[in-house]
């Protein structure tokens, strides 16, 4: 690590997190990365190192923005639950009352709670896949969602809304506030907290962006080597499977993502500093600003779905918009017994723990080494955080 550009600090009690961060580089697992931990509303770990580019010429900085992948949905969930707290949205009101067209194809009783708990059944857009032009225009995706059929009877099972989640919530936010979810987050969350968190980056030229490198996990998810160690990988190689249809089959995107364009299911951008600060503000005050009431945090932490996910074919537990401790992706064995959070298929890992007053974010650009389980890099860091508390 001494030969790599690096910076930041960790309080003495959390020195083990700094050691784990250095180890991730020492074993050759990183190109560039950052980790930040908030404890009791204050930053206690803020570290970064390595390079933001494939050529390893551009050092990672404290404000480097990483592509979040699924942790983008944490920002989206925060926005939705803020609107619930304000009485603008209600968890159990049918979505069709805000968005009448959504009632088509047997969706009239689906509500926000079902979407957040991954229970609505609206997981596929393979009948009208998302294109770059659709992302720019927004309306075609809303129309495709309105025309979609639930893949199971709503609220009878759960399956990860991998592609549809952000777009479903964004349309609800737009219909009730006049802003897309990215615009709402910028004004109502990022601005008061001073966050470098974006779904749709207004001026990419003024930001320092990390280049996400393709990894083994992305190759696997593309069906290059379906393998047989995970049922999910086999299903990803089968275009007729729900797994394929809900992920790869629901998108017709080519080339690198445009940071200016909102894709609220995958393409959020954030520094580790800002993402950890976001999680801390979900569960407590950060410089006088708190996003959610304690009652709403208690509700989001209640188990709403548990068992084998119909999409990922893995054991998962969900509260409202966040994984709860269960299964190989968000395992309680690493200390996450009272936490909630989201992991990215690209290797990023994020969580909040109200019982321990923690907000945690780890982001990087070398990609994941596999899918269907917590990465060794994230595991080392998470275990070090909980060891520090003990």
Question: What would you note in describing this structure?
Answer:
- This protein is α+β, with helices and mostly antiparallel strands and 390 residues long.
- It has one domain: DD-peptidase/beta-lactamase superfamily (Beta-lactamase).
- 32% of the residues lie in helices and 14% in strands.
- The protein has 13 helices and 12 strands.
- The protein has a 6-stranded antiparallel beta sheet with strand order 1-3-2-12-11-10, sandwiched between helices.
- Strand 2 and strand 3 form a beta hairpin.
- Helix 1 packs antiparallel against helix 13, helix 2 runs parallel beside helix 6 and helix 2 crosses helix 7.
- The relative contact order is 0.18.
What's this model, at a glance?
This protein has helices at residues 15-26, 72-85, 112-116, 132-137, 139-147, 165-177, 181-193, 216-221, 231-236, 242-246, 272-283, 294-301, 376-389; strands at residues 6-10, 32-39, 42-50, 66-67, 197-198, 269-270, 305-308, 315-318, 323-324, 340-343, 349-353, 358-364. By secondary structure, it is α+β, with helices and mostly antiparallel strands. The protein has a 6-stranded antiparallel β-sheet with strand order 1-3-2-12-11-10, with helices on both faces. A 3-stranded antiparallel β-sheet has the order 4-6-5. Strands 7-8-9 form a 3-stranded antiparallel β-sheet, with no helix packed on it.
The H-level CATH homologous superfamily, spelled out, is DD-peptidase/beta-lactamase superfamily
Order of helices and strands: EHEEEHHHHHHEHHHEHHEEEEEEH
User: CATH first level: which class?
Assistant: Alpha Beta
Q: What's the total number of strands?
A: 12
Strand arrangement, major sheet:
1-3-2-12-11-10
| Unreliable residue runs | 223-228
In the CATH classification, which architecture applies?
A: 3-Layer(aba) Sandwich
Count of DSSP-assigned helices: 13
Dominant shape:
globular
Protein structure class? alpha+beta
What name does CATH use for the topology?
A: Beta-lactamase
| Percentage of residues in helical conformation | 25-40%
pLDDT averaged residue by residue: 94
Estimate what percentage of residues fall within beta strands.
5-15%
Span from first to last CA?
27 Å
Radius of gyration computed on alpha carbons: 19 Å
Tally of structural domains: 1
